[in-house]
Amino acid sequence: MLEIKNLHANINGKEILKGVDLTIRDGEIHALMGTNGAGKSTLSKVIVGDPSYEVTEGSIIFDGHDLLAMKPEERANAGIFMSFQQPIEIPGVSMANFLKAAVNAKRKYQGLDPMKASDFLSMMREKRKLVSMDSKLVNRSVNEGFSGGERKRNEIFQMAMLEPTFCILDETDSGLDVDALRIVAEGFNKLRKPETSAIIITHYQRLLDYITPDTVHVLLDGRIVKTGGPELAKQIEDNGFDWIKEEQ
Amino acid sequence: MSEQQYIEFYSECRDMIMSKSTAVMNNEREKAFELFKQCGFPSQKVERYKYTDVDKAFAPNYGILFTPLGIAPSNYIFSLKDAPKDMTAYYNRLADTSDGITLLNTMLAHECLLIYVPKNTKVEKPINVDNWIRGSVPSMMNRRMLVVLESGADATVIVGDHATDQQAFLTTQVMEVFCHDNSRLDLYEIEETTPGMNRFSNVYIHTENDCNVRHSCITLHNGTTRNLCDVVMEGQYTDVTLNGCAIASAAQHIDNNTLIRHIAPNCTSNELYKYVVDEQAVGAFAGKILVEKDAQKTSSQETNNNLCASPEARMYSQPMLEIYADDVKCAHGSTVGVMDETALFYMRQRGIPEEQARMLLKNAFMGQVIDQISYEPLRSKLYVKVEKRFLGELEKCKTCNLCK
Amino acid sequence: MPNEFVKKVAEEKYKFGFTTDIQTEIIDKGLNEDVVRLISQKKGEPDWLLEFRLKAFRYWKDQKAPNWGHLRLPEIDYQDISYYADPTRKQQQSENKEIDPELMKTFDKLGIPLEERMALSGMAVDAVMDSVSVKTTFKEKLAEKNIIFCSISEAVKNHPDLVRKHLGSVVPYRDNYFAALNSAVFSDGSFVYIPENTRCPMELSTYFRINARNTGQFERTLIVCESGSYVSYLEGCTAPMRDENQLHAAIVEIVVMDNAEVKYSTVQNWYPGDAEGKGGVLNLVTKRGLLKGHHSKLSWTQVETGSAITWKYPSCVLQGDDSQAEFYSVAVTNNYQQADTGTKMIHLGKRTKSTIISKGISAGKSENSYRGLVKVGKQADGARNYSSCDSLLLGSECGAHTFPYMDVQNNNATVEHEATTSKISEDQLLYCNQRGISTEEAVGLIVNGYAKDVLNKLPMEFAVEAQKLLSVSLEGTVG
Hints:
The complex is a heterotrimer of chains A (248), B (404) and C (479).
Chain A: E1 2-11, E2 14-24, E3 29-33, H1 40-48, E4 53-62, E5 65-66, H2 72-77, E6 80-83, E7 90-94, H3 95-109, H4 117-130, H5 135-138, E8 141-142, H6 148-162, E9 166-170, H7 178-191, E10 197-201, H8 206-210, E11 215-220, E12 223-228, H9 230-239, H10 242-247
Parallel strand pairs in A: 3-10, 3-11, 6-9, 9-10
Antiparallel strand pairs in A: 1-2, 1-4, 4-5, 7-8, 11-12
Chain B: H1 3-20, H2 23-39, H3 54-58, E1 63-64, E2 77-79, H4 100-108, E3 113-117, E4 127-133, E5 139-149, E6 154-163, E7 169-179, E8 184-192, E9 197-207, E10 212-221, E11 224-233, E12 239-248, E13 253-262, E14 268-277, E15 282-291, E16 299-308, E17 314-323, E18 329-337, H5 341-349, H6 354-370, H7 376-391, H8 396-399
Parallel strand pairs in B: 1-5, 3-5, 4-6, 5-7, 6-8, 7-9, 8-10, 9-11, 10-12, 11-13, 12-14, 13-15, 14-16, 15-17, 16-18
Antiparallel strand pairs in B: 2-3
Chain C: H1 2-7, E1 25-26, H2 33-42, H3 47-61, E2 85-86, H4 89-93, H5 101-109, E3 123-129, E4 132-136, H6 139-144, E5 148-151, H7 152-158, H8 160-166, H9 177-185, E6 190-194, E7 203-209, E8 216-217, E9 220-225, E10 230-238, E11 245-248, E12 251-256, E13 261-268, E14 280-291, E15 297-304, E16 309-312, E17 315-318, E18 324-333, E19 338-341, E20 344-347, E21 353-363, E22 367-376, E23 384-394, E24 399-408, E25 414-423, H10 426-434, H11 439-450, H12 452-455, H13 460-474
Parallel strand pairs in C: 3-7, 6-9, 7-10, 8-11, 9-12, 10-13, 11-14, 12-14, 13-15, 14-16, 14-17, 15-18, 16-19, 17-20, 18-21, 19-22, 20-22, 21-23, 22-24, 23-25
Antiparallel strand pairs in C: 1-2, 3-4, 5-6
């Protein structure tokens, strides 16, 4: 369970989050919508511990851990995974080496021995199929020369490898065509266990057609200003955000 | 200044040195001595030596070693004494007679290792040369090498520089390389020495027409290293590549200085040097591409990328172009940078601990140079060694065959 | 064809090569302590300034001229030069307050609006001929805002404390050989003081001209921009055609305080010598700005087309945190001209940022070098530098060189340098020709396009002049 209380955060001295409260129980899917610059990505980056952001007030508790006191890698090992809006290229670091390091870091955190090379390779093969990822991509450096869609697919592939319990999909749908969107969304649904919870950040209804949220939140100017069921996403799709601003 | 003790030593011991040597070398000795007396060691005011304190390295009182060359029987490696043909036309012909270190080497080196590949001969296996220095007192060694590839010859040469014992050592090395028409040379220099080591290496390469020459200079572990590599491209349609990989930590010092002189038209040169400087280490790179008036249609690219990994590390970078021909394509690029924080964060979000993520990034950074090594077994070996170096596991004894 | 056409090097037209017949007071040639004292005395200077000069002279005496540039600097006989020439002397004697009409004509010919009514371009001008500042325009208007813009001699008289505080604070007399020489014998130059929170309402401009024979010009410019203020300063230079070399060793010092911004633009068109390399100005200049305050900004823009020899590195010391410095340069060399120019960016403060854009164009038998240093000190966390140095070669007898030096002592800094050398491609020329543009015109177009990044940084009035100058300087390199 993730519990955010009165969260305030800055970047370069500018306050972006101005008191966010949000509770996500195990197995719940929450969609986060809002205008550009409202603070959606900031919230997700603060959850995963991006050092560029400074938390000035508030708390985040994840499965009983004080998340803000943990390093980004400790948060990841505790089960938090973010699908980045713009996954970065890491030239020279092969996907295999990268994922081996990540998988074994998590096993170490869980008190397990490193995975045998052959087991790791068959795991790669198996998970790759889940998101219909080309084996050629797996042999390249991390995200190097990947198209936008391939990068997003690669994010879900990594999610499959790391089996997180809490996922953040930050605009995973942006830049994807209908088929790619379906593959990514179906991949996510296949990987999802009953206790897996998630935050889905999106501008559009179409991703939510595949992944139905339990709750939809609207974030405006650093605060959650409205919360509702899946129908709220449809209302926003039809009417934009102005009517919500007027309600304020 | 520190040259005095060498002048005195030579004055007293010239007969002894000559008696251990051969006429080809002895013929050059006195001339070098006269010049050395005049110019001495280069000070840091000399442009090409501004990043290394030569005087300091040569000041201690070293025991000068005159160890005979140990050469396993081979078709291609000789002592100059036993050269299959007269090498007078080659010996000391490329060496820069205004460089005090080269002069000192010419004065004091008693033997010269010769690699000679006759016309149209392709040497299938790499020619390995391993240099070791060890001793219980501060010691100095003066190594001399001559590499001659006749036209159509093809060889891979791997020169290793090793040291054991925690002792102060000083080596000077002068290597002259002649590549005749249509020859191919893949030359590697790999240093894995100790913090007490002072290495001063001057490599001079001369190319004729249609040659393909690669020089890769890899410093994995060292003390104070100063490598100079001068290439004179006198023939047309020749392709020269100079690559370098320098990893320095603790108080290590790596200074690479290169000069590629394009004299003839239609040649290509490429240069890639990468440094990772950590802790209190100092890295320096100065490379000049000189394109002379007649060297039209020259194409040259020089790149120097550096990673400063600690607040105390220091990096000097000086890529230079000096161009006198108008129909050329020359470019250089140089960066001194920090680790990509975004990449680092991405990796940490996947649960990889920060230290390991940094190591992976350093490894990937250096990988770009290692990728270019064309001799596959060496390439694989270096991937492992570079990784071990970054992990701090590259201990001397594991890689040194001396005790085995 | 294209290779043929770049070979021909015709005579360059230097349109500012006239001399002016003005009665000028020149002191005897030669340099010693007495000469230094005489200069100081003629200018009625206070003792502290004489002391400053003497210290500099004594230091200079024991130094040797630098030889590290990629230049063939002729032996300069410092005893064969007169260190003080005053074209205004006559006027003072005749008690006529008006400026000598000959002098007015000179500046008219140069297109410099000395009369305020002519200065519709809204530029305040300080004109320096030979050693002495002739007239500064718009002084009153600037005074309303408490801005001081006058010759440095006047400043010594009227604002001694300001001058004393800042003179030599950025370029100490021990800085280099030519800086020491200038500190000993500088004759005049401009002084600018912008008080706190003031935006200078107009471009300030100085025109320098060397007229008298066998004289050196040693002007000194000092600009102080207090917190929160802004000034844009332009400098232009010309000299008559003479067979012998004329020495010009100037110093420019700039101090920029918190949140202040200074833009300094130069169009340097000293006489470059003739097509055989005879004569021309030896332009040996030390320019440096100290970005003393946090968030201060300094930008150097230079278009260097003149001088037989240019040796100049407008530099920035980025001392204040978050300060930003820029260097934009176009250097054109033709015939036998030699230029060794570039910049130094010394990063000391945190998050300091510098940008270097240098465009070298070489033609004829000239040598054109970029030389630059980027240094990042231990404390300069987060410092960033980007340098880009391009060279264009027109003809096969010239040289284009790039000598960047980088010295990084901080692991949290990013320094990037890139350089290319190229020529005008035959395809580009053919394309232009096919559209009916002559080769010469095409080269002008392409060169101006190549230099655009830098020309764009110049104030409007200067940009037009600089563009013309570029074409003129290269006239005859193709044909």
